[in-house]
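Researcher: Please translate sequence to structure tokens.
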Amino acid sequence: MRFRGFKTKCIFTLSIYVLVWHAQVVRWLREEFNIPVKGQATWRLFIPVYDWVVWWRYLKLIRQTEASTFGAAEFSRGTKPLSVGRAFFWSGMWFAGGPYVNRHLNALDAFKRGQMAAAQFVPSPPPPAQLYGAGAALPPPPPPAAV
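Model: Translation complete:
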């Protein structure tokens, strides 16, 4: 197969990028969020017309991940979940849907990193002066263990 025109080379290259991006995001959702990603094998995007169904389910998967991860508190503050219809419409125009979907994926990533950082932070116990007050007597030490 010989690619002659610049447009042909661009379309071919961008198509490969879409396939790689799809595979990476599906793997990331499965590993980081333990989301079941049935029917999201990248090879299914090669099937004409059925690839639209796969892409629609892929966008719904991102929306469901957002809804289960963020919860109602995030959405009540003005954050809106991914609009599957809008993303699907803009995805039909090649990469116009990419930045929209990627913004939501970046928000998921930032939320996940924040959770991991909070889990790693373990506060140290306060010193005894804070527990019992500045002038209070400290409790006696425990008795030695019997042998």
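Researcher: Any highlights?
Model: The chain has a mean pLDDT of 76.
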